[in-house]
Amino acid sequence: MADTIASFWGPVTSTTECCENNYAHSSYIAEFYNTISNIPCILLALLGLINALRQRFEKRFTVLHLSNMALAIGSMLYHATLQHVQQQSDETPMVWEMLLYLYILYSPDWHYRTTMPIFLFLYGVVFAVFHSFFRFGIGFKAHYVILCLLCIPRTYKYYIYTEDLSAKRIAKLYVATLVLGTLCWLGDRFFCKEISTWPINPQGHALWHFFMGFNSYFANTFLMFCRAQQRGWKPKIVRLMGVLPYVKIEKLKRK
């Protein structure tokens, strides 16, 4: 939305703006709430990363948590500046993150171990190069939705084959946060004109960031549980300070 005070970063060059007044709180931050709302995602990803490293999960989960953090930081840069280059630092990691999820979901049953990571890596590199030259607009959103849809069949398979009720609850929290976040995104995107007349802006896009931070954490936790089951590590869901769930494993000691 239109600037309310002088901007540090200059004219808006990004292809997308959200339903929040630009530079309303600081000349250095274009969309204040959309920027700070990424902080929970960074903190949750950091907790997940610490758990993955401490219990020596496979490196794929270390990279996954780092990608969540990179995406949140890129999103902060984008919403703080509303510049095209920083927009790419938000959108390109979104695709890379989904490629990681595809690898984690499908690699256990993939017979040719090297072909999938090589293909997904090259796919991510090619996308990043093309995305740096072309503004895809609606094409980017359609591409991202397709990648998300590709994850659904295997995620559902993991869910129905998981007997642990605590793990199933985390999967349900994943779905709930996804639905709530999507509704907030849609409201902010398509009803901005109406929202602008309200006394208080609910900051739908900021709520999208908030819910998706928890969504990513729940997704990672559920996938870590399923992978630990596959490896025979006797996983169980425990709660940090009785609130935040995480996976605890018991690896068999080598004799």
TrEMBL record:
A biological process from GO: autophagy
Positions with a binding annotation for Zn(2+): 79, 205, 209
List residues binding Ca(2+): 20, 22, 31
Q: Which cofactor does it need?
A: Zn(2+)
> Where is the major localization of this protein?
membrane
Would you tell me the Gene Ontology cellular component terms?
Answer: membrane
Listed transmembrane segments: 32-50, 62-82, 119-138, 173-191, 206-226
* Pfam families per UniProt: Ceramidase
Name under which the protein is recorded: Alkaline ceramidase
Tell me which species this is from: Arachis hypogaea
Traced from the root, the source organism's taxonomic lineage reads:
Eukaryota, Viridiplantae, Streptophyta, Embryophyta, Tracheophyta
